[in-house]
Sequence to fold (212 residues):
Amino acid sequence: MTRRWAVVVSDVVRSSRRRDLRSMLGPRLRAVSAAHLRQKVIRLPYAVTAGDEFQTIAGDLSQLPGLIYDLRRRMRPLRLRIGIGIGTVHGRIRPPVNQLGGQAFEFAREAIEEAKSSHTHLEMRTRFRSDHEGFDALANLIYCLHDALVGDPSEQQWATIDAYLARKRVDLAANALKISASTASRNLKRSRFWYSLETIETVSRLIRTTFS
Fold:
């Protein structure tokens, strides 16, 4: 059976308004690449392919939802639009990623273009494309609802999320930030963090069921 890969293509929303984009994008991508390679959620470092756009090949397909969330978390304050293509890749998986091709790259390009062309009243920030229409329809619906619900957490909320992910306990996160446990809990709730965890788990199961 031919292996399916996931290509992740991302660009920065409203990048033309950021004068500091060039100085910010490179260092952040290097830091995220190091972290994600260490966690084995990507196969190749993130590489800028054009202007504000960058891409990679993910590791295991079921890790995609966690990868998407962590990419947004680590790349803040930059707001990302992400297209994911699931399919075959031609040849050997090796850098540079922009020299590779195949079905997964074509699907990822279609996904990011769909996200870019979305109507203003329905902003698409996460888009999937594969050869399985049923999966695409369901995954895109889930993420359409998730992204609309979560929106853009405040920096204080993100800081609480960072602390919680590092310690896995609300009270320890609160101690690290020198805030009360009730404030930490409120920050997590208002950031819709628990909804995000549920989305990650649900779509991970959907991917395993569909593509195993």
